[in-house]
Predict the structure.
Amino acid sequence: MTTQMNETESRPCIFTRACSVVPFLGAVAIVVLGAMFLTMGGAKAAGPAVELKERDWSFDAPFGTFDRSALRRGYKVYSEVCAACHAMDLMKFRNLSQPGGPEFTEDEVKVIAADYTIEDGPDDYGDMFERARLPKDPFPAPFENENAARASNGGAYPVDLSLVVKARGGAENYIYSLLTGYEDAPEGFDVPAGMNYNAYFPGHLLAMANPLSDEIVDYEDGAPMTVDQYAKDVTTFLTWASEPTREARHRLGFQVMIFLTVFAGLMYFTMRKVWADAH
Ligand code: HEC
């Protein structure tokens, strides 16, 4: 190969060196693109100035998956605590049984949904009626509209949590830090009535009072019933809700990389063969 290259140095590059270098570069480019695809979706807005607490999230690795038990417990925390103030407009009960999520069984989801009612109708007499929710129904919203939500929260708006993990710089580490970041304000820091000091909220003054305390949600699987564990689980749940197809994306990225690597190899040998007699 080297001697051939030397002999043909004066020829146009495309017929000589290029035919071995181009496929090689192509292969490298393809693998790099594949790797980018794998980690895509990790793009985050600029984070807040404070350094966030970081946990080892199982779903953050390139081939990472969600811990199913954490997702189930996280749903429990959301539904028993956060749902009193925060809606999740994009979620339907049936999402709880879809692959890649908490993967409750369909029967479990029916039972979960039936705990809530929804207005339906009109019936044969033209009247609206209440019925138990079904898996196809959305999660219930705690307030009729934004004004009602603000009126109940001293003017502050409890944001919809469906996409909140994606919507905040620092993503899951921010949500986790926020939920575990209630502290006494430093000396001289004035906390007005109705506000709360949080080490990780930009500006530190947050209208949401600390929603978590030890043992407020019963766990049946033996996981610790602590603020730290609740925060970790509900953050896992909210991350999945923000990107329910994250596991599928990881899998697809992996398959695309394998395919492209094999394809690049084939291209390399094909090119060598095709151009072998060209000089
Ligand atoms: C009693 C009502 C209430 C409960 C319960 C509650 N929140 Fe909030 N939450 C609020 C309000 C009000 C705000 C807006 C705060 C502000 O803008 O100062 C808020 C804001 C937030 C924010 C946005 C912070 C930001 O960066 O803008 C997140 C995230 C959040 N809550 C998550 C949760 C989670 C998770 C739970 C359950 C563990 C929960 N909240 C429980 C009322 C509540």
Observations:
- The pocket of heme C is lined by residues 77, 81-82, 84-86, 153, 156-159, 164, 168, 175, 178-179, 206-208, 211-212, 234 (CB under 6 Å).
- Residues 2-40+251-275 form one domain.
